[in-house]
Amino acid sequence: MRLMVDEVRALEDRLREGGGPKRIERQHSQGKLTARERIDLLIDPGGGFLEIGLLLAYDQYDGQAPGVGVVTGIGEVCGRPVVVVANDATVKAGSWWPETIPKKLRAQEIAMRCRVPIIYLVDSAGINLPYQAGVFPGKYGASRLFYYNSIMRHYLDVPQISAVMGPCIAGGAYLPALSDMIVMVDGTSFMGLGGPNLVKGATGQD
Q: Which of 15, 34, 7 is nearest to 23 (CA)?
């Protein structure tokens, strides 16, 4: 039993490294913090952070999707419980994998059921295109994220705050757009429904 516990803890430690030291260094070289560093600064000191879904899809995609590119959990900000959803840009630029959707939905459901604010720390390239066929379909596909946004905003009065700290592309731009408040970081953040290559592919124009 002890051996199994040690193995799980070692796996968790590895997953918390996200894309690994080189990707973390690259994030810092761009003048940005990692998702976990941002959460550490956001959450009240000593308050702790209960992470949810760390092991999701850990054994898929040849180990290339630790945490499926997003950190979710519960903590306290100014003494008030909040749900946090933070894109991990060290994992494929924070793009969305098929399993990213249920992980984010779970975080939103906790915020709705507990009637606590939800904070999005956005740094994402949008959908991971090779896997987009698994992101959108079904009742609990990506569109349900935006449905929950609307429910929280118009019916449940659950505060939604987005801090855009890096790229915020395509579907990823809808979450902040449907939030109650958007904060953007000068020099590192931007929002758009598509990058230059995507626009050129759709329109044939530069």
A: 34
Q: Residue 23: which of 35, 11, 40 has the closest Cα?
A: 35
Mean pLDDT in residue range 15-40: 95
Query: Is the four-CA dihedral 195, 197, 198, 203 of positive or negative sign?
Result: positive
Mean pLDDT of 141-165: 94
Check if the beta carbon of residue 166 is closer than 8 Å to that of residue 38: no
Q: How far is CA 108 from CA 52, 103, 162, 205, in A?
A: 12, 9, 13, 38
How far is 202 from 206, CA to CA, in rounded Å? 10
Model confidence at 198, in pLDDT bands (50, 70, 90)?
low
Pair type for strands 50-52 and 80-87: unpaired
Kindly report the pTM of this predicted structure: 0.91
Q: In angstroms, what CA-CA distances link 142 with 51, 134, 166, 191, 206? A: 21, 9, 21, 18, 29
Task: Record the tokens describing residue 156, joined without a space.
Answer: 């449940």
Kindly state the DSSP code that residue 152 receives in the 8-state scheme: I
Mean pLDDT computed over every residue of the chain: 91
- Which superfamily does 2-196 belong to? 2-enoyl-CoA Hydratase; Chain A, domain 1 (3.90.226.10)
Domain segments of the chain as ranges? 2-196
